[in-house]
Amino acid sequence: MVAKFDLNDDQVVVIIGTGAGGGVLANELAQKGVKVVALEAGGRYLPEDFVNDEWESFGQLAWTDARTTSGSWRVAKDFAGLPAWIVKAVGGTTTHWAGASIRFQDHEWKALTTYGAVEGANLLDWPIDGAEMAPWYEKAEAKLGVTRTGDRAGLPGNNNYLVFEKGAKALGYKEVHTGRMAINSADYDGRMACQQTGFCFQGCKWGAKWSAAYTDIPRGEATGNLEVRDHAHVARILHDDTGKVTGVEYFDKDGALQMQKARIVCVAGNSFESPRLLLNSASSMFPEGLANSSGMVGKNYMRHTTGSVYAIFDKPVRMWRGTTMAGIVQDEARHDPSRGFVGGYELETLSLGLPFMAAFLNPGGWGRGFTTALDHYENMAGMWIVGEDMPQLGNGVTLSETKDQHGLPVANVNFDDHPNDVAMRNHAYRQGIAMYEAVGATRVFPTPPYPSTHNLGTNRMSAEAKDGVVNKWGQTHDIANLFVSDGSQFTSGAAENPTLTIVALAIRQADHIASEMAAGAI
Amino acid sequence: MTKHDLRGLTRRQLLSRSLAAGALAVTGAGFIAAPNAAWAVEVTVITPDQMATLLQMARDIYPHDQVPDPFYAVAVKGYDSEDMKALVAEGVTALDAAARAAGFDSYVAAGWEEDRVKLLQGIETTPFFQTVRAGLVTGLYNQKEVWPIFGYQGESFSQGGYIERGFNDIDWL
Ligand SMILES: Cc1cc2nc3c(=O)[nH]c(=O)nc-3n(C[C@H](O)[C@H](O)[C@H](O)COP(=O)(O)OP(=O)(O)OC[C@H]3O[C@@H](n4cnc5c(N)ncnc54)[C@H](O)[C@@H]3O)c2cc1C
Ligand code: SF4
């Protein structure tokens, strides 16, 4: 029985956003008997609704509400209104994601200690470490059915992977495999095995890839403790004069303003919307926005050092067939400053269909230099770079002059690369190009970053209240019954794709919130 | 190109010069058509000459010699609208003025792609060029019918994915 809670029920936990963080937290709390109202700005789509067509799917799932950009990053020029490629739907960006699920390396929890102070960067150690997180990672891997963890087999490699693997081995790379993926290599947890359809970014129509939309959300609802309200866009978090949060105001699907009372509020709107909401909730008591005594709300935005390398061969590859992210090289993920930068990066195969390739290969490019590349689309292979970028005070989210359809100031996203990011990206371009040249590439393309898919750090976790927004549980330093539950908690970005860590943190946070509630502490 | 191919067109309105240069389309009252009359686009708001210019621009911005004209025509057809009318009129006038300054009768009349590309580079930062270029990214490449020309296979769910249809069939490594 799907629950239905009263707007005046002040005992519920309200979760804002139902993606990797919020969707998992909602289910985990519901399983423990906690009453939850999850408010999601987007609509509800299931595998039968997903469309295997890049632009049509983008139109269906992506967050296209207004945002603005500034700074020297190329995205601000090429995609001024689209700083991020993320989802507005029940399940959040776990509908779009590729499924790469890898743990942080132990030293990455201690970025400041390991790398030392880096000029221009605002590095900090996480208040938690690999040992603390290991059991939560294990639970997250079991939930997502991550391949090559537990007793789950790896996926078979597709054409794009086979080219990539051959190049990697030619360069002497050792840690090369088809990845640890939240994609079933065999039936698992009531979901079928991957059919190598090649539309992982558009929502897996087979349900072979884990998404909160068709796992955690319906399971949470089945407990009778979770009510998910879709098309519910939260405008503001409310508080009383003791400074505790008391509920939220949201626009419902008809555009009417509603107020839901709450015992606890958890913010999980991804790294642009979560700080935007805290800033838009400013009041006479908290003029700089909620939970912002440190001034760190919206700061230290990280997006991973990314970029792609595409290559053309003299024979067909047909990279679009099969899993989008079909394999990984991990040899460069280590911290080895002799390469000219701190931190490390992963190389992962990536494929785009023809429509997206035209948009992203060289945004703004035209003429024969551009079109002869697409002429050989069938002979292309591709990989994506994902590496640790530096948190910087100047990078982040502030409130824009522009207003959204509800009249609320939208997020402006400012970003400049740090010299460490640039050095890492250039190193990765060279290595990726060398891999493809070792397999006989006739032409290579060091492709610039896409609108951000990994968005981190804008409400960061810190041991001390002055350095960040939340403590080791994701609880805001300033307000005991206000939590942050998404990727904006990240203190540093690490080299790894973030979602496994977001999910592990959400499972751990649910445990903490439930026991604190039981103890009457919040 | 023979006169025979042009039956049905109002001769007075033909761009005789561009035809002599082998241009890809001919214009008539209210439409532009392939020189061999294999296809035609009707225009109701902008002029046939303006549509012919847009079509040539589309080919010069994203030239794929293996992609026939109708795909490009579909991609620019949307400019035949009240919303776009002013932008197109102004843009085409400026482009043709630049062409005349460079010694051509018009942009379309410049016979070599290299010459036309230089003219386009001269207007690259204008809203007109940027609008046309950006529109083509989806207007051209998001036509499902154009995908097979590039080998792209589109959706595969209805056929059960590639698990038994060549996801790992590479044979030259
Ligand atoms: C194409 C693509 C591929 C990716 N591949 C990988 C991968 O292979 N591995 C990996 O680890 N990560 C990957 N990611 C990243 C991953 O999807 C995100 O890191 C993750 O989903 C972020 O989780 P989140 O909880 O922070 O936010 P999200 O999952 O984005 O969820 C946020 C939700 O909050 C909702 N929301 C926002 N504001 C409000 C509001 N005011 N009121 C109500 N609801 C609101 C949004 O609509 C959204 O549904 C990929 C992302 C993309 C786009
Ligand atoms: S390749 Fe596999 S995981 Fe990706 S969409 Fe297809 S079936 Fe799903």
How would you portray this structure in words?
The complex is a heterodimer of chains A (522) and B (173). The mean pLDDT of chain A is 97. Chain A has 522 residues and is of the alpha/beta class. Chain A has twelve helices and 17 strands. In chain A, β6 and β7 form a beta hairpin. Chain A has helices spanning 20-31, 54-61, 75-78, 111-115, 130-144, 159-170, 216-222, 270-280, 354-360, 368-375, 419-438, 499-518; strands at residues 13-16, 36-39, 68-70, 176-177, 226-229, 233-239, 245-251, 257-261, 264-267, 305-312, 328-329, 345-349, 380-387, 396-403, 409-414, 443-447, 482-484. A six-stranded antiparallel beta sheet of chain A has the order 4-11-12-13-10-16, covered by helices on one side. Helices cover 25% and strands 16% of the residues of chain A. Chain B has 173 residues and is mainly alpha-helical. In chain B, strands 1-2-3 form a three-stranded antiparallel beta sheet, covered by helices on one side. In chain B, α2 packs across α3. The longest helix of chain B is centred in the middle third of the chain and has 20 residues, at 82-101. The interface between A and B is large, with 44 and 34 residues. The complex binds flavin-adenine dinucleotide and iron/sulfur cluster (SF4).
What key attributes describe this structure?
heterodimer, A: 522 residues, alpha/beta, five-stranded parallel sheet, 17 strands, 16% strand, B: 173 residues, mainly alpha, three-stranded antiparallel sheet, elongated, binds flavin-adenine dinucleotide, binds iron/sulfur cluster
Q: What is the compact description of this entry?
A:
By secondary structure, chain A is of the alpha/beta class. Chain A is built from twelve helices and 17 strands. In chain A, helix 1 runs parallel beside helix 7 and helix 5 crosses helix 12.
